[in-house]
């Protein structure tokens, strides 16, 4: 408490010192700043008040300029009218002069003619002779008189025209004089308005100057009043400072005492913090160790649960079902949406968002779109290697067209699928077991195209094949005449696959550019002999790439493609019937309804380890097909085929029947009687 009190006193002391300095600065700047601020405010207010007057003044000046321009224009028009009137007056005078000259000439001619006629009339005594002469002369005179009269008429007409022109010019002159008079009157009016505007402008300027002086005087008076109030406040503050100084000295003494008392406080605080950190670290370490132990136990329990589940599946003989979601391909981004989601803690759950509803599917394993071929194969390689021990194994890919079945099973040259990786693994395992065991690996490939078996490795593709019961008494099915190749190296595998791919039926549809139009089965037989005991084993690995289920309207199949699609859908429908019969434990399972189900009967009847790889497309346009595939996969997952048997012989005789590690399930006997 003392330390906190000392800190408060110190802060209060600092505040008082700062306040004292601030008041000193205000005292120095108050005389000028307050006056300047007041003057600025008054000038600003005066400017705001005089802005309308300034705008009015500018308007008046603009009007004066406009009227001056108008006066100048009228003056120019007046000068032009005067010049035009003078020109018309000059033309009128010239016309009058010309008319006078013409009249004078006509008068002279007329007077001469009259004098001549008078002289002729003064000769009466020469009657006959003169009469003739007069007649002759009168004829000439008459002609002259007629000409003179014609000229006089022309001159009279010209004179009338000149008089009419003169009257028009006089009319124009009067009009110009009237216009000039009007312009002079307008000029006088504008000059009067300019004088009035100038007077108003001078009056406004005088009023503004008086208002400015008055505002400055008021601001000065107000600033002096405020300065007086500030001085009074400053005096009060000084009195307060004088009162607080003794208290400040007391607080300073108390602060120094407390400061001496807490000199060792940082060391005590550091020691306490060090001890607290050590305790916190110890507690955190204990909690972290407990969490690590819990996490380890959780992972152990999860692994144990999966192991128990897998063992339970193995004992029951359930078909294991994996799901692989293919990634979105190039060109599909416009139609792709996030309809598929995954559980971050459980790799056996898959979620589909269908029409606003979230559908959950539980399988044995779900592969993300980012899953690699190697990662997928690591999950199935234990099944693959069990065929070396004499078990029959079947892995088949199921899904709609374009969902990635062929890619998962066959892959590409740089990234092969399950088929080629399985053979490579078998070669590796066989090599490790040598020289105690001698193994022989044979490969055959068969295609079911339009419900017809085709030998993909044979020379005669038109040869008809059929499914028969193996005469060795094992109860297994086989295809007589099916070509088998013994493979001993990866090069042999590549040659066999190349031949099989070349003969397989594919075509382009709306859903897939290279759609498989048939079911392809890769049959791998592994026969082994123990060189020391003569113990023999024989296992078979069926790798099946089913043709894709498709809707004919969506795939756009026509002609032969239409028949292929119908056969594919029929065989897959038969597979669904078999699955439903096995799931319901019917006494009769319809394996013979299709060549596909008949050929897979060994893998679906309890004498085989079977895995289904269901392929799913992530596109929204394929939602209905994806839901159907996943529902079918869930039905398959519930089927119990029974424990798989191991085919082995105790001696080297090739004619003896194989012995089994366990008895066949009743469903196997039912299946055999069906054949």
TrEMBL record:
A GO CC annotation given for this chain: centrosome
UniProt xrefs under Gene3D superfamilies: Kinesin motor domain
SUPFAM superfamilies linked: P-loop containing nucleoside triphosphate hydrolases (SSF52540), Tropomyosin (SSF57997)
GO molecular function: ATP binding; microtubule binding; microtubule motor activity
Localization per record: Cell junction, Adherens junction; Cytoplasm, Cytoskeleton, Microtubule organizing center, Centrosome; Cytoplasmic vesicle membrane
Gene (name only): KIFC3
Functional note: Minus-end microtubule-dependent motor protein. Involved in apically targeted transport. Required for zonula adherens maintenance.
InterPro entries: Kinesin-like_fam (IPR027640), Kinesin_motor_CS (IPR019821), Kinesin_motor_dom (IPR001752), Kinesin_motor_dom_sf (IPR036961), P-loop_NTPase (IPR027417)
PROSITE patterns to which the protein is assigned, alphabetical: KINESIN_MOTOR_1 (PS00411), KINESIN_MOTOR_2 (PS50067)
Broad class of the protein's primary localization: other
Entry protein name: Kinesin-like protein
Top-level taxonomy: Eukaryota, Metazoa, Chordata, Craniata, Vertebrata
Coiled coil start-end: 6-33, 57-98, 145-218
